[in-house]
User: Fold these one by one.
Assistant:
Number 1:
Amino acid sequence: MSSPTAAVATLNRKVSKSGDDSLLPDLDEDLMSSYVYDSTDQEQAVDATPNVVVEQGQQSYGDTDKRKLKGFVQAAQKLQGDKDQKLQSCIASIQTLLSEGFNPIIWCRYIATANYVADALKQKLEKKGSQIRVIAITGELSEDEREIRLQELKSYPQRVLVATDCLSEGVNLQSHFSAVIHYDLPWNPNRLEQREGRIDRYGQTATKVKTLLLYGSDNPVDGAVLDVLIRKAVQIHKTLGITVPVPMDSTTVSEAVFKSLFDRAHDAVQLSLLDLLDEKESAVEQVHKNWDKAVEREKVSRTRFAQRSIKPVEVEQELIESDQILGNEQDAERFVLSAANRLSCSLSKKKQGWLLSTIPNFLQPALGDKPRLFTFTTPAPEGVEYVGRNHPLVEGLARHIIEDALSNSQDPIAARCGFTTTDTVTKRTTLLLLRLRHLLNSPKHQSLLAEECAVVGFTGAPSNPIWLTPENAKSLLEQANPVGDAPLAIKQAEIEDLLSKITELESDLELFARERSHSLSQSHRRVRAITQEGQIQVKPQLPMDILGVYILQPEKFVVRNFLDNF
């Protein structure tokens, strides 16, 4: 029922199979389930046609049965193309979506079906001069091949992706696709959520996301799944505003549908929805009862935890502190632009973002060698790639700069020691880049080790430092620009003198680490009070690592110091 091509691929194997009538081997139930049931417990579904299931069903067929099978194959072959109403409905829907400005994904159950649909769409849409590109991505491709094909597809102004559920989890597609067609009706409503969740999520720039579901009106199995399962899932979503997954494993749900079909009718074609529902305590009703209980538990949970009663002001400070530690959009932009400038990358400002026309060699494994248009604010415009702190561009630049700083002692891109003459300060100021470690202990969970970086600064000598606030120290590190220079000998002498006295700061730095751990502990306490979770202890792990030392020197002092030495 997926497609004529999938039927032919499966039945042909049986027709051509020869064998004896020896006893059947023991069936591998787990293997059979992975081909037949639509499990959402595993990230990637098996999308190969179930040849092995059919082959293990019977060792061999007689001549009469083989002739019947050949007749089935021939009938399926005749349905391909123009006579395939499911395919033609899909093509018409795709053309409508493209004309409305949508870029759709078509989800299929099997590899054979996905390739069949993609080939038909290519013939229809990829005409000479067309800007539309159609690509199929299935489980027969490696993960690297899937990524390459996906990147190729994203470069086209209008695009259609035909995919199996090998892409339904773990891949973000919201930046380049805005519509979904379920070509094959999933036998588990949870699969619908997974598929649509690839595009209906944060980062989607389209104001409207469309989803379409194809099913056979004369297919009793499709009708049962749609009416008994999927429409119930939709109704639950409308009532609660969230999705409540079916609280039973995929095997049980599918078997309930099978049982309701074959127990109630000799002729499945004449089966109606009323036949399914009027049976006392049917298998489907058992699924519904368990599902309704899950809905009630969710209602109680939402009342107990009262997420809607949480006031934004209560968590605002925690979000601000998270941004300070992890970096926000402005931090990511400042870092990328500064790093690109130091590396002489061709990053140029455009109307919708920044164009990286030439990808440096060390970034090509992650970004490829084609020009990329970036933006540092979300949501990103269509065709522009959003760069956050976890984007491969940021990670690649950071990794390259750190490796260079640790290995290049002559002319590093970013040095661990610095002496800057600047008009940002009026007094000699020393900044330290620190790496702190905290041990998080909880009686309910395993201990965790957390790391963070912080900037501290002081004026005066290390023996009697006057400490800046962390906010001022961080601001100076970001904003101090050189306005002059000092002789190399003076810079080296100043840095060496500071490093020789760095141990005089140990007690103050240890106090800072303990204060920081206490602050984190209080933050955890506030959040856990809202969520009603157990408390944890935060302990600093000493000593801290000093990753960098930077001296900021007023310009006038440097000139006078140099003249006095002269």
Note: The first helix runs from residue 4 to 15.
Number 2:
Amino acid sequence: MSHLLFLAVSATLGVTAFSFLGWKASFCIILFLAFVYDKNGYRAVILQVITIALFLSAASIADHLRSTSYTGTETSFQITFTEIPDIDGNILRAEVRSDADEKLQLRYIIPTLDEKQLLEHQAAVGLSCPVKGSLEEPETRRNVNSFDYRNYLKQQGIYWILSVERFSFHDCFFENKNILDSIKKIRSEGIAYIEKHFPEETRGYVSALLFGEQKEINEDELAVFQRLGLVHLLAISGLHVSFLAGIIFYAGIRLGVTREMMSLSMLVFLPIYVILSGASISVWRACLIAMIFFSLLFFKKHIPITKSMIIVYLSLLFIQPYMLFNIGFQLSFAAAFSIIMSSAIVPRYKSRTVQLFIVSFVCQMSTVPILLFHFYEVTILGVFLNIFFVPLYSILLPFSILAFLIHIVYPAAGDFFIYFLDLIITISNEVAGFVSIMPLASVAFGKPSFFLMLMLVLAIFVFFIGWDLSAFKTVKYLLAAIVLLLVFQLYIEKLNPFGEVIFIDIGQGDAILIKLPFDKGNYLIDTGGRLMFKQEAWKQRRSTFNTGKDIIVPLLKSKGIDRLDKLILTHPDADHIGGVKEVIKEMDVEEIVIGRGSEKDYIREKFVDTAKAKKIAFTAVKRGDRWKAGEAMFYILNPYREEEDKNESSIVMYAEFGGQRWMFTGDLGMDGEGEILKVFPNLWPDVLKAGHHGSKTSTSESFLDVLQPRIAIISAGKENRYGHPHTEVMDALNERRIHIYRTDKDGAVSYRFTNRSGTFSSVLP
């Protein structure tokens, strides 16, 4: 068994080495080979080296085969829908295949309700249409530790987003259907049936359990499941596959069908079920293992399930090396493998509740490094919640299937089952929602360093081995080591001698994080946001992008920040405060700072009620206010009176820390700049945050001549409709040889510092 396990590690290292060749991958390979040599000698090392080289080559070949044939200048395409199209409000998204036999990610803004209804009826797997549009490169990550959409699509063999301008519906036709398309159509019809006949609160969960489709689940409820480490219950995996396969197999046996025939039947059914349930990684894993089991049963052979797991892992990784970087792939195999490896541990405990706790603990522990790496937080309560929710969803799965099938045959009786199903799901969601706001529901640890991650993985792995061997004395020490590593990661940021200023790229708006050394202060200046216009009902989408939820909160968590000492709102424009509600929902905020005289402008803002419910203090500041935090000093230069123009009432802050003098100007205009120069003629900041995103109404030449900054930072959205930054501002800055950083060109801009000096960097090269 150890030989197969070593092969799995070698395969993983080989694929990783191709994608991330460097000293870290080399160090891991050398460390692993040294361990193999110590255990099994040089012959085993040679086998592992060959395996590493084999999977490195497989990754190289896969990368070569996935290259694109497009240049980006093409405008006419013949596309065929290969997956069920997703129509969300007035936008259509779909994975399609072009006439050049290349996968594209299609995006189409639907102009009219009539066309939306036409698409809802016509757009389906197998539909082929001529379209006009343009190819766009997917966006790469623009912020520290943020999601890389380009890399995500590349893992699926997609290099371009096809932005469609118009469809030629009269020239569309369905290609000759194959078995795959027919199965996908059945899946699409099943999802549509659930959406039509099941209650709104329930339909998303039933679609997830039956067909692996989560799009109809309420966004906030899904976030709760993710926060509590319960989202795996909504993904079709071993629980679903083993239940269905077992029911079908033993039902056939009871009806008099031979085991051999039922085994063959399952080998036909399982690939069909993979497609019906959405073909996710977890489904593939569970179904392939089940297919190995039934194949061996047919030939009256047997191998341990651990071997089957490793064989499936190696096969998938060899055929699709990029799967290794899929979060679902990592979590699925980590959890499943840990359960199988602990199969000898669980029976030692007689209590069913204790056994459930052990299984939950094993799964949670095995996935901790993956969750920390990708999401920077781990739930503590998840171990206990799974004891309740896993049995519950073991009941909900067959109940959902029963309700679905009965409703198709006899709707009146089906409605009776659906009523109770809706009741159970509603109550369980309320329980989850209540628990999610408890202190230990989720703890932000930040993104671990390479060495801490390596030590954590090794400690967890050896811990499981020791537990399996009943080496309880060693296990106690290892468990203590794991806890110490997590505590160290939790507090390393609080003891960090380095501070950081991040001008976050949130598009057209402002959001600036100031993180002082030794946890002396975490300040967020503005949250970005978008001006939301009221839309017709048919245009409204299931979820909308929010800078607070989608950019700022993940960034804060990646830095191990779960508390903001001050949330400074320069002025009440949507592009500065649009993400406040989402930030204060996720973060503990000690104080919200607003400008004196603008209090009335905040009264009707949606975040105020949330802030009051969390008992967050509001402080109105004015010119002359100041505070000190560690070695850092902060001075308020504006506002000094009530202004009609919101921009002129912006909080302007002057600060000294990290060996630099800083000036943060909000959206202050030229009149306000002139007023500040009259009162403070001796200001001399090293770094100036240019006012109003580089608009020509701010950052005047006279302002620059007096301040003489060395560096100017402009926060503006990529290709924004306002034309920011304005050429006049850029010319003025360039003429004075002021170094310019722009979030629209450079992505997020960071300054990492100690008390005396620091270094600037940007996310984009």
Note: The mean pLDDT is 91.
